[in-house]
Amino acid sequence: MISNKFRAAVIVLIGSVTITSCYFPSTPSPPPTPLVFVTSLSSNSAYPINSSNNSIGSAISVGLTPSQIAATASGADIYITNQSNGTVSEIDTNKLSIIGSPIAVGKKPFGIAICSNGTAYVANTGSGSISAIDTGSNSVISTIEVAGSPVGVACSANGSQVDVTSFSSPPSGGSGQLDPSEPGTLTEINTSTNQVSLSQTVGDGPNAICDGSSPSVMYILNSGSNTVSVYSQNGTLLRTISVGTWPVACSISTNGNTLAVSNELSNSLSVINTQNWTVTGTVSTESDPQGVDVGTASTVYVSDVSSNSIQEISLSSLSVVATITGISSPIGVLEVTP
Question: How distant, in Å, are the alpha carbons of 58, 104, 210, 252, 272 from that of 256?
Fold first, then answer.
């Protein structure tokens, strides 16, 4: 009897010779391991972290003062904003190497998002504009003037608009600090035309923005009032949620049910249920949490700039399950499956 480990043997008799052909079923390849990319302000580099064992890969040199990270839909490439030399770097996530030359944008680029049309939108804090980059050619196809100093940028769930938050005043003095005491601006940009479709006043010091898909709303982090404002896609204020001190970054889970917010001055992470807009838990972090990303395995990665660490936080237990060290001044963080 033929074993079930292989299918259909064909036996051909030629004289006294028996030729047997066997087909063995192929073993499916294991799914690729997600990588967590982290930017380092002080080393001008990006680092890949293996999410299965939290081992840190070799540094990838980018521009000066790298900050935020966005990935293409396929996960094959990431784009990083470099504040001090006004550029954006592209990295191949499979080869872990730089692609092409840095892309010149405006002054002090910070926030970045890549929409479903393949266009990357970069918030140029120092020049009051948004650079639209065609990720196919890596060329700037449009520069869009917005009010104030833009910092946060996000794409709507359906990809029809880009949402931008701006501080009302430019960075002051040599410190480059933005003033969180004044109301900021929300700007909506039509991705088909790259024209501004809405501009309105929002809360004090709107540091960041995340767009949700279920429900389809915008979450704006107000550093001046320590709150998160929930807006409809047409700019109607729906709810205001109190969080920690100086909320600075946010990320939404892949199922859309959880919003994670890092609070820089209270050294904490606020976890929000997006179905009822309530805080379900607060987790203590190390010093100066900045970047935040909700991974695919119900974990949140938080970069702690002053403590030179990245923390992995479980959403189920609302506790820190791992602390990764070895990257100086980490700021941007993003999990990507190449």
Answer: 32, 33, 11, 6, 11
